[in-house]
Write a structure and sequence with these properties.
Elements: E1 2-7, E2 23-32, H1 33-36, H2 44-62, E3 68-72, H3 74-80, E4 86-90, H4 95-105, E5 109-113, H5 135-148, E6 159-161, E7 169-171, E8 174-176, H6 195-204, H7 209-212, H8 225-230, H9 235-244, H10 251-269, H11 288-295, H12 302-314, H13 319-332, H14 337-347, H15 353-364, H16 379-386, H17 391-396, H18 405-408, H19 411-416, H20 429-442
Parallel strand pairs: 1-2, 1-4, 2-3, 2-6, 3-7, 4-5
Antiparallel strand pairs: 7-8
The structure holds flavin-adenine dinucleotide.
Length: 445
Amino acid sequence: MKRILWFRRDLRVEDNPLLSFGGEVLPIFIFDENILKELPQNDKRVTFVFHHVIRLKSNLQKIGLDLKIFYGKPEEIFKELKGFDEVVASGDYDSYAKERDIKISHMLHFRYINDTYIFKPREVLKENGEPYFVFTPFYKKARAILEHKNIDTAKTAEHTLAQEDYWGIQKNGKKLLLELESIGFIKQEIEIVDPHVKLENFLKKIDNYQEMRDYLSSDATSGLSVDLRFGTISIRAVFRALFSLKNSDTEPFVRQLIFRDFYAYLLFHIPTLERQNYKYSFNGIEDDEKYRAFCEARTGVPIVDAGVRELLETGQMHNRVRMVVASFFTKDLLLPWQWGERFFASYLLDYDSVSNALSWQWSAGTGVDPQPYFRVFNPYLQSKKFDKDAYYIKKWLPELRDIEPKYIHNEAFLLSAYIKDYPKPNIVHKEAKARAISCYKKSLH
Ligand SMILES: Cc1cc2nc3c(=O)[nH]c(=O)nc-3n(C[C@H](O)[C@H](O)[C@H](O)COP(=O)(O)OP(=O)(O)OC[C@H]3O[C@@H](n4cnc5c(N)ncnc54)[C@H](O)[C@@H]3O)c2cc1C
């Protein structure tokens, strides 16, 4: 058997089931032109991925293998890869990935393995064989299965390399230097921390996770989403580390990881969730001016503008802020959730089409989850609770540096005061909330 091992969302050697087959192999990575041509030269994710692809290549070399790196369209590249019996890759559930893989499967036998998520999409089902659409029963069933599930480290088999030349980046039959610039991007200054170090540090403070995770300056979360997105750490390794802790409160974190699986599971069973409302026909009101103000962090609502600034500058945004921002976008500004989803998709380092689309549907109240349309976050109460001293807000909005925190959380003050270089709120929350509820209500009939 001669196999192509296609690395995608599993950029690591350790605990990678892709390497457990053995025999003659060609490990490859493709910088996908279909995706990259849409991105600006300074996209931070490409720097992150490039770093980890180089690391993967070097780690494969340490075990006698190598990585052939391509730039181009996967279907064109596979046309040139002749003489193989099958391609092996880990499963991916979004529409682009599925379409891409179907095209390749018409050229070469395609073997899907389960690596990105802990469960296979049909592993957690109701007694009658149907999928769960509500998280809590899914979680209970998943948790029971997990007790007995094999999450041991995937063994690396003996391999030989199917080809000899692994130099540079292959693009349209030419070989380019193994540099980010060869594929048209500019290296960005981003902090790249070894995911195992992140995990180790996080486990030391995991007892605080449940209580502190929503506080914006607490640093109480793991920061692992980007690594789980690109598979620079194995999800099984994270579970093994959690289960090895005997006297710690690991369950709230386990729950979040199962939540991540749940979203992928939902998208597998209801593919339309990626773009279409599951419930309610109301889908926001298009308004370019409001959208522009949001994207430029000029809504005048401090926690929202601070979140957008953090996103634009770092590619990150705290989960609580994502929830507040998405609620504000879909309910106060009443914009289509798909616009917000696309905006996040352009900047989030951990952008994942599954988690992003389903979280936006959750925020809009249009998804599968029983999140009611009339639940609207009050951004001022949220910032007062989770950023009481406004450290987070002032970090990203230095123009509010001299304003006392109690005024930053006070809508009436912000609507009436003049603040140099900072706009007044472009919306009155109570009125906007009433308008949103009325629009959603009408669409019920
Ligand atoms: C509107 C919106 C958009 C989002 N878009 C993304 C996205 O594109 N990619 C992404 O990975 N997460 C997304 N999330 C979920 C969440 O915000 C991030 O996973 C989290 O902020 C990452 O930080 P962390 O790794 O420190 O999280 P931790 O609190 O340490 O959580 C541990 C892990 O659990 C998973 N997780 C936690 N919360 C969620 C959640 N709500 N949905 C799915 N998985 C979760 C993540 O993989 C995360 O790494 C989004 C949430 C919202 C509200």
